[in-house]
Amino acid sequence: EAFDVTVVGSCMTDLVSQAPRLPKAGETIHGHKFFIGFGGKGANQCIQAARLGAKTAMVCKVGKDFFGENYIQNFKDNGVHTDFVGQTSDAATGAASIIVNDEGENAIVIVAGANMLLGGEELRGALPAVSRAKVLVCQLEIRPQTSLQALRMAQENKVKTIFNPAPAIADLDADFYRASDVFCCNESEAELLTGSSVANVEEAHRAGQELLKRGCGSVIITLGPQGCVVVKAQGSSSKHVQTTAVPAVDTTGAGDSFIGALACYMAHYPTMPLEEMARRANQVAGVSVQTVGTQKSYPFKKDLPAALF
Ligand code: RIB
Ligand code: NA
Questions:
Q1: Atom of ligand 1 nearest to the CA of 10
Q2: Omega prior to 305 cis, within 30 of 0
Q3: Are the C-beta atoms of 170 and 193 separated by less than 8 Å?
Q4: Which of 95, 108, 111, 158 has a CA that sits 20 to 30 A from residue 66's CA?
């Protein structure tokens, strides 16, 4: 069976509290709403790609618990192939405690749990889904070595790779760059990886060039309401792709919506310029920030303008 997009990555149950602001250390504050949702960067990206019409497979591990069972059903409800979703009784399904303030900003603590037990053995079992995908996507909420192995497996099989170094680690193994056709991160991740400030478009261009030098095919640095910067090895051009301003209610998982959309475009329109894919992916992510929640705010193809397809 062939897939448009295969994601090797994380699943988390999102425990979300909306509050006027983020609490300080030692402080208790009143929030106004609590809800539980499906999250985790890997799964979020996979679900967004699926909702835009990509044929998707997820390679991940959840616990043999209530949250894990629920998560598998969530994949099925979204049409994601689940043969490579493993369950373990050795750890709990990953969980994310999230606080969203009135500006739509968030602070997140993840306890990866079962996600950390995804390893080489599961990857070898998932070879059919990795080698027969058009695009493979990885992040850093599972063991970094598992992500790197998946990216390499994809490249050996001529599958295009998108790597999202999130959450970022300062001492990222240099091999990740060489294993990434598209290296896509946000401004704070770019800052951590390059060690220099990425606070505006100008600095993003510079950081993008620096990351590109480390060996990836292309670099995208997302900049929230400022759109993104796309840097391509080919001609080493660096372009700022602007986006339309939208009222942000909850930006949690907007970056994942962007990457899921990008993966879908890369699979469906392999010859489209990367800047154009990024422009469209920005619009998809822009829809997600206008309603609360992570996956539950991700648009379906039928809800979006036809011009995006
Ligand atoms: O990128 C957003 C995601 O990060 C949330 O869904 C949460 O689960 C954390 O993994
Ligand atoms: Na949202």
A1: 10
A2: no
A3: yes
A4: 108
Give residue 103's pLDDT: 87
Report pLDDT digits (tens) over 220-248.
999 999 999 999 987 778 999 999 999 98
Q: Which bound ligand lies closest to the C-alpha atom of 260?
A: 1
The residue contributing the CA closest to ligand 1 atom 2 is 253
For position 237, what pLDDT does the model report? 85
Does the predicted TM-score (pTM) go above 0.80? yes
pLDDT tens-digit map of 91-132: 999 999 999 999 888 999 999 999 999 999 999 999 999 999
Separation of CA 234 and ligand 1 centre (Å) = 32
Nearest bound ligand to the CA of residue 100 = 2
What is the ipTM score, two decimals? Answer: 0.98
* Tokens 């497996």, residue located: 153
Residue of the nearest CA to atom 6 in ligand 1? 39
Residues recognised as catalytic: 256
Evaluate: CB of 250 within 6 angstroms of ligand 1: no
CA 289 → CA 10, 230, 237, distances in Å? 21, 21, 29
Q: Tell me if 184 CB under 6 Å of ligand 1.
A: no
Task: Take atom 8 of ligand 1 and give the residue whose Cα is closest.
Answer: 40
Dist. CA 105 → ligand 2 center (Å): 10
Closest CA to 186 of 246, 216, 234, 226: 226
Render 252-284 in DSSP notation, one character per residue: TTHHHHHHHHHHHHHHH-TTS-HHHHHHHHHHH
> Residue 303 and residue 122: Cα distance in Å, rounded?
36
> How far is it, in rounded angstroms, from Cα 305 to Cα 309?
8
Which pLDDT value is given to residue 234? 78
Task: Identify the pLDDT of residue 233.
Answer: 85
Counting beta carbons within 10 angstroms of the beta carbon of residue 70, is it exposed (0 to 12), middle (13 to 18) or buried (19 or more)?
middle
Low-confidence ranges of the chain (pLDDT < 70): none
Ligand 1 within 6 A of CB of 141: yes
